Amino acid sequence: MSFDPQTLGRLGITEEQVELMDVAEAFCRDKSDIAKVRAQLDDARGFSQDDWTAIAELGWLGIAIPEDFGGVGLSLAEVVPVVEQMGRRMMALPFLSTTLVAQALLKDGTETQKTAYLPKIAEGSVATLALSEINGSYDLNDIETQAQRTTNGFKVSGQKILVQNLDAAELVLLSAKFEGQTALFIFDAALIPDSARRREKLIDETKRSYEVSLDGLILPESALLDSSQSAATLSHIDLCGNLLGSAELVGATQTCLDYTLDYLRTRKQFGKLIGSYQALKHPIVDAYIGYEKARSLLYAAAHSFEQQGKGEVATRMAKVAAGRALSFAADRSIQFHGGFGFTYDCDAQLYRRRAIFHDSQFGDTRWQKKQLARLLFN
Amino acid sequence: MISVEEFGKDADQWFAEHTPRDVDFMMPLTFMEVGTDQQFEFLRDWQRQVYEAGFLGAAWPSEYGGGGLTDAHQAAATKAMRKYEAPIMMNTIGLSWAGPLILDIGSEAHKQKYIKGILSAEDIWCQGFSEPENGSDLGNAQLRAVRDGDDYILNGSKIWTTHGNYGKYMILLARTNPDAPNKYAGLSFILTPMDVPGVETRKIKKLTGEHGFTQTFFEDARIPADGLMGQEGQGWKIAMQTLEYERGARGGQAGGYSITEPDPLEILNLARDTGQLNDPVVQDDLLDYIIDAQAVNLNQQRAKIGPLMRDNPAGLPLMDKLVKTEFAREINQYALTLQGTRGAYYVDEPNAFDKGLWHRSYLNAFSATIGGGTSQIQRNIIAEHVLGLPKSY
Fold this sequence. Notes:
The complex is a heterodimer of chains A (378) and B (393). Chain A is of the alpha+beta class and 378 residues long. Chain A contains twelve helices and eleven strands. A three-stranded mixed β-sheet of chain A has the order 1-5-6, with helices on one face. In chain A, helix 4 runs parallel beside helix 7, helix 7 packs antiparallel against helix 11 and helix 9 packs antiparallel against helix 12. The mean pLDDT of chain A is 95. Chain B is an alpha+beta fold. Helix content of chain B is 42%, strand content 14%. Chain B has helices at 4-18, 37-53, 71-83, 92-105, 108-120, 235-247, 266-273, 280-302, 315-337, 357-370, 375-385, and strands at residues 125-128, 144-148, 151-162, 169-175, 187-193, 199-204, 213-224, 228-229. In chain B, strand 2 (144-148) and strand 3 form a beta hairpin. The interface between A and B is large, with 46 and 44 residues.
């Protein structure tokens, strides 16, 4: 047995994390009340361009980009409190995908690509990931899309799904099989014609995504990332996605609990506030405990993220706990709101849908546990 | 004053040399598991040795028998105890409840009389809060104390008295005024001698088949009134204060520990020893426990990080007992399921895994999920004090 409790990571926090937490808490609260979130559910674009410009000006898009490339020069640990606060206010911005593309470029981009794209991202260019396919696999190497080198560049064939915020994106990071290996390509989103895009209907209506047909797409030679690194880069994207996804889940859990508690404190039945009934009180305490545990695991993951081995274990644990925390809190929130909970007007559904969506992103609980079993028991 | 570092080194050396190994009886893991005279005498003697070596009560004032050093010194000694997995300090009620209380609010005479005996384990202390009819509803305690000159006359009964049969003194929650405006205001907190006529203890056999608790009966028992702590009517407040010492929410304890918490991840060794560590179904279960154990561990680290505690500062401290004790119960229960046919055995059966320890630990785990406020009461406390929900009753 190679299991060693020391691989489990510890908890710590940086001054920068605290500063960003403070700024993000105030910003997201002011810019994203629930009425605005609901108003954007039917909006085609789904997010506020003004808010996007504002966070670019605050430097959030460059938090984990080195200063040489126009960023702030911190790490993903400092991105976590920002995403947590966005999740808390259900703020719909293409922040995760844009951050993940930047991380992929940092890991695997050529110097030309880094110089060309990272400063643009830091300044506010939306970037998106075209990794998932219709097979539904969480394994980022389990793809059919092909890229072939031709005299004109790379000829691509295949189809991607769940390409988020493609309508707003300037940059796309694509995975495709090239010479038998998974390779990554970065290119201008305008290369994908409108006819090749179909908007998908998502369980989480605060999000936007597209199915993309790639047949006939020709990418320039300069689009290819350093292909010798792609396996490690895909794994890095996966972990970054799980870390930031956990942060969004933890933030949403906090609000879901607040929303439910508010109802339990004000709704009366049989002449008593329903929050005084232990049949509701005890499960909501369990949901709250789930939230606090997930938050501890999240900040431990942020703290140890860059440590080989430890970071992956801590991140996958955080995702398990955070996914379960929001799923349970939101499931009980629907139930505890009674008849109102069954309506679209009750916010509980927003949180429940959010949790289901995150299971689709970089692996659900079962997938994370499979990876943990591999890491801890083999 | 000796430096903390040097004191810690001395302690390290002392525990390395003196920690008893390989006893031929089952060593109690918690003070509540002390069920036989052999266990009791062994642990009492061990506490005395540690005290005489200077590693218990190091921060208590020297004029009353303490070491006259600082909390940091005691912490260094306690760290050495843990390092060598030394047996528990068994006079827990004295060391962690009565002693700190007496030092905080007791009279000079109380301090002179009680402190040294608490540390040396010469005087065993027990706690008389719960009653047969008033368990979770502690504030409704009915044991009656009637003032008669310089004495109180006690009538009633207390239950779940750990070490009641060995106790020389009890911290007693008694009703001095049955006509007070509310149930809490009629209670008083009294340091009570046990060796007086009219006090009788009866052992309670636990679900494990062992002893460790008593029920204590008071029938016209006459005790000196100078054991009253604070004023009459302040009993509830003082009892809550002792609970804060117990939970570590308030400093002042003598040090050491009264509960050894086995590493929950010992269950991995059990899974390996039973050849199931590579079973994916078992791995799936184990991962849940590993993640939960890590969350419990991280919660404790986070409680010391201010910026991560702002939203609900009382949340993690108040959930600590609930989370830890329920986890211990669950993981011990799970351990039984890994033992196959040998899960049928119990303590002392040579065919049992780990001497039947897991079975005993599982059954004993309920002492912590029930005692000190049941898990259900803990959920009410969290709901009302952290989440702002209305009271249930």
